Here is the input.
Amino acid sequence: MAKLFARIIWETFVWVGLLGGVLGLVTGLGLIFNSAGVFRFAERMNVWISTRQAMRPFEEPIDIERAVYRSHRVIGSLLIVGALFTLYVLAFRLKGPEFVAVLGQFFSLPVATWIATSLRLFLILANAAAVFIAATMVIRPSALKRVEAWANRQYSGRQATRVWEIPRPGIDPLVAANPKLIGSALTVASLYIVVVIGYMRIVGH
Here is the structure.
């Protein structure tokens, strides 16, 4: 399986590199012989698309607290049952060899054993914590107010990626001032990439 994934990744890298080399070669030759046409095409392609508006619905908070507090005993009881059942399976039914057998297909045996043991321990601790939290929900849900306030902190992905949404002139002025020089450099670099990847494909087969 690991060899198959490695082969897929390598083939993807080769074809992406080959396609990029061909596009770079075409663009370089276009800058040398018909820079005006390349600039006209670039102006049509330079359309600014902002993801901030598209991501806005995902930033809206979803309030489920009222529904949870109205049925806190039922929800807490269900969580306790589910967590206890998971703890029973992890502690008594699932000893670890099953995880090791699955992970052993991707990692060496010592690494697979370490990952399986760590994952099993993490799940046991997580479900033990879930039992405690669910029991608190049933008995005294107001005790979880501080934990709830901490967990309800909002992080804005739109705010974090705002700097990526600012249009920048980039390399366009430099290319417009030196089309033949940039075109020649791009042609040589792209031709080198195409020749190297083509040679690798031929030798590899």
Residues 2-33 form the longest helix (32 residues). The chain has two domains: 1-48+180-205, 64-166.
